[in-house]
Amino acid sequence: MPMTLSTIPAILLRPRPFCISEHVRRPPKPIPDYMFRNNYEYTRDLAEFAMANGIRFIYASSAATYGDGSAGMEDGHEDLNKLRPLNVYGYSKHMFDQYAARNGMFDSIVGIKYFNVFGPNENHKDDMRSLVSKAFDQIRETGKLQLFKSADPNFADGEFGRDFVYVKDAVDMTLHFLENKAGGLFNVGSGQINTWNQLASAIFLALGQEKSVEFVEMPLHLRDRYQYHTQADLSRIRTAGYTADTTELNTAVEDYVQGSLVPRKHLGDV
Length: 270
Known about the structure:
The chain is of the alpha/beta class. The chain has two domains: 1-114, NAD(P)-binding Rossmann-like Domain (Rossmann fold, 3-Layer(aba) Sandwich); 116-166 and 191-270, Alpha-Beta Complex (UDP-galactose 4-epimerase, domain 1), CATH 3.90.25.10. The protein contains eight helices and ten strands. It has helices spanning 32-52, 88-102, 131-142, 167-179, 196-207, 220-223, 235-239, 249-261, and strands at 19-22, 56-62, 110-114, 116-118, 145-148, 161-162, 164-166, 184-188, 194-195, 213-216. α2 links the parallel β2 and β3 (110-114). The longest helix is centred in the first third of the chain and has 21 residues, at 32-52. Residues 1-18 and 24-31 have low confidence and may be disordered.
């Protein structure tokens, strides 16, 4: 059904200056049809509606589109066809990136490839929460943290890592595009890689506890789809005028743990 003013969600309709910012939640279970309908078809319909009505459109892509990273993690839409996502979620996001590129949409819309975002107000995500949030509960209950063993002989246990970006930085980088009218596909991350061991150390440090980690077997269904290395290339967003430094890992984790998790507060609480 074509999208019209009567079918678009009311929360997205506001007086100008106007922006539609699309960030579809992940489903509670990996249901491919759900992902394709929401991450591809619904995003496509929103984008076409926005462009037809002169509305700024910012949507969430994902670093999951980079797959194992063998094709690099440089953003932009010029070489999308060389990317091979490892899972259905990443592929559903990649499909819209390709659609937007084929149809010349990136002259005016913005896609954001979020890396591993963590921070306040993520409890509703349940098992899709960041490790920081899940680790806080686990450490409080057991005094230790479980991490996956490596299933890749090239990486020691805990010595593979991700680009962990604090949600406050991710929000600031996203809001940059409300004022900056650049179009394109942009990475949003810290620009740094930290190992799971480093993240664990930061969590225990923030809690003021001695580090205690137990390595457990990686589930079989993850072994062929696991990203061992992610690191955002921020060159493009820097070129688009974003100049602020991202928050160092230990500082970000401490702010999250002591400012939100320990007092059980949400960002925005009075």
